Structures are given as structure tokens and as C-alpha cells.
Amino acid sequence: MASKVTPTSLGIFTTKPKFPNYAIPTKRLESFTESSTPWPDASHIDVNELVSAGLVYSGVGDAVRCYHCGGGLKHWEIGDDPMYEHARWFPTCPHIVICKGKDYVEKARLGEQPSISKQKEKVNQSDEQESSISRQETAMEAAAEFGYHMDWIRIAARIYSEREGPNSQFQASDLMSILMEMEDDPSMAINYTAGSGSCCVTEQSQDSPSNGLETDLEALQEENQNLKDKQNCKICLECFADVIFLPCGHIVTCPQCAHANSQCPICRKDILGLVKCQFADFSEKDDDGVYKTSNH
Fold first, then answer.
1. Which residues touch 279 (CB under 8 Å, ≥6 apart)?
2. By residue range, what is the domain housing residue 145?
3. Residue 121 — very low, low, confident or very high, per pLDDT cuts 50/70/90?
4. What confidence tens digit (pLDDT) does each residue in 185-233 have?
5. What angle do CA 187, 193, 198 make, to 5 degrees?
6. Hey, which bits of 116-216 come out as E strands?
7. Is there a single domain that holds both residue 248 and residue 181?
8. Most buried residue among 71, 92, 97, 289 by CB atoms closer than 10 A?
9. C-beta of residue 263 within 8 angstroms of C-beta of residue 272
């Protein structure tokens, strides 16, 4: 016999937090920083990680409780991940499921630890990327010392990337060579203005018609920022809003702030359930040809 379909099985969460006053991350943080009994200095656990995991300080030792499910955790050890431990011991907590997804919670429930080798690989990749970015920035700064506007230097970097491949690494001499080409043929810069912004060659050329294009660039940057602001959580104003309020369907908050409202701030309708969005990543498919989803 097929199992009964419930809202929770469909990814719809209707339960309310046991401690709604701590539904907002900043309030949970205050429980650690403004408690009459301070969070123990000897603890090796990052307070911000505890807050992200939905945990509130009890004021006793290193004991914490979840604002939503009420589950308690204590006796933290070096290397413990608050989000993982929360999911491991309280796998039905809506805060954890909304923030991390069912797959993460199920693996934690089964005691499956993240692969250390994969973690090291990610760290090495991150270090390599940061080093590469630093070298590129140094090359661009060197070109700027010759009086070239940074906008034109960025266009030169794009041209180099298109010529040599997206993973190519340029040096200052490479940028200088392209910048001199652009001085001889200004139309090269105009062709890239729509994608990377307008510019002027040197300080002496600021009275050129490119000033109008710079105004267009500022307008585009402002429009881009406005679009980003619209996608951000309306409570913390920092994280990506990807939780749907039911039944109104508005997307207003991030997972961390999703349980802080009983009514939708947009239409004032009562919130009867929450659903986490899964945005398709049209730039990447899995092995079965299915578009992947982006987790924010």
C-alpha cells in the first residue's frame, strides 16, 4: 500500500517554531553575546555556525536548543559541525530541512560524514583560484600605472580571454599589447562596451564621446544592483530569498529568516506553509542530461 501523502512529504512545512522570538538570526546571536552567563571562551565551536544551524544558547555550559524544533545539543567537541549534528539528531526539524535539503538531512541521519578528501580538494581548488585572481589583479594594476583607465584594462582582459581561452592567465605585457591595439583602433573597445562597460584610454582622453557610454555603464550597474536587491531576503537583506510562502506564493525571505513571519510582508495573508525553491541551473546538466539546481 502506498504511503500517505502529507505536506511534509511534499516539502511543505506547516509547523510553527517553539521559540518564535529567536526565528531571526540576529536574535539567536544575541543569546550568545548578551547572555548573563556568556558562551564559554573554551568552546571550539563558531557561534555564527550555531546561529546558522538554528541554535540558541541556554545559558548553561555549552548547551543549546533549536528555536524551531526545541531539540537540545551539548558537550561540543573539536571538529563538530552544528548544522550536521542538528540534522543528525533531529532530522525532522523544518529549519534544517529548509536550509540544507532532504538529501543532506538523510545522509546526516545515517551518520554519513562528508568526504575529507573532497573537502581538501575544494580547499586546494579555492586556494588556487584565489592565487590566480591575485596574479590577474596584479597584472591589471601594473597596466593601470601606465595611465590606462581600469575599464579599458578589463576590456583588454576580456579580449585576451577570448583569444587565448577562458582559462588562460594573462600578464601585464599581454594587456599592454592589447591596449596599444585598442589605441590604434578604438572601435575594439566600443565592440565590448555593451558587455563590460565603457572606458577611456588615458587620462587625457576623458573628454571623448566615451563619457556618454560611461553614463550608460553607471545606469546598467545601478539596474543590476537593483535586481540583486530584489532577489535578497527582505529581513536580513544579505542572503538570497528562495523560500515560498503558502498559499500566497510570494518569495520574501532566505531559509534562515523564513520562520520569522506569521503573515506575508507583501500581501499580509497568513502563512500556512513554507516550500524551499530549487532554481534550475541552465548552464549545467548532470550525467542524465537533467538540468541541475542551484542551492543558495
1. 242, 293, 294, 296
2. 130-231
3. low
4. 877 766 665 444 434 333 444 444 445 545 555 666 676 666 667 788 8
5. 95
6. none
7. no
8. 97
9. no
